[in-house]
Each structure stands twice: as C-alpha cells, then as structure tokens.
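Why should sequence recovery work at all? Because a backbone constrains its sequence more than one might expect. Tight turns favour small or flexible residues, buried strands favour hydrophobic ones, and helices have their own preferences. The token representation captures these environments compactly. In the example below, the structure is given first.
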C-alpha cells in the first residue's frame, strides 16, 4: 500500500510552506549582518516549527538575531467549483 509523503501529509493537515529570512550579527564583527534563509512546513499565524528553530538558534549558536521576515503560503487550498450550463457525453 502506498503512503503519502511526509510533505503531502503536512499540507493535508493544514501546514503551509514557510520561508524565513533571518538576519543575524556576525559574532566576530557585530557591525555586519549575515542572511540565512530557512524553509519548512509550518502553521500560521503562530509558526511553532519556526519558533523551535529560533529558540535553538538563540540557545546554541553564537550569532545574535537581528530580525526575521516570514513568508507563508498554503499550497493546498479548497477547490473552486464552476458549474457549466451544458453536459458533454463521450462514447
């Protein structure tokens, strides 16, 4: 039996693709900012997966965070139904 992929399962559960641009200061040169792009499936508006990653960053990594910009899109959306005034039959 085929099982859906982890990504598809997440999308069906309401997760959307989340991209975060994280700006952080370099530990040796705090006047400079470095950019890091993070992407994963997450749930808006609270973004628990991203929050866990940012907590890990603050606790374990040396570069202090400057700012985070978030983009989010649900890839699976409710279908739109359009009715037609005709019926087509194929034999």
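From this structural description, the recovered sequence reads:
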């Amino acid at each position: 039996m085929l099982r859906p992929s982890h990504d598809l399962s997440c999308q069906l559960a309401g997760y959307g693709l989340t991209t975060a641009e994280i700006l952080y200061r370099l530990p040796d040169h705090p006047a400079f900012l470095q950019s890091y792009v993070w992407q994963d499936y997450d749930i808006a508006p609270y973004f628990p997966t991203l929050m866990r990653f940012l907590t890990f960053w603050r606790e374990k990594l040396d570069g202090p965070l400057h700012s985070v910009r978030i983009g989010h899109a649900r890839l699976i959306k409710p279908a739109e139904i359009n009715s037609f005034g005709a019926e087509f039959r194929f034999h």
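A few observations help interpret the result. The first helix runs from residue 6 to 12.
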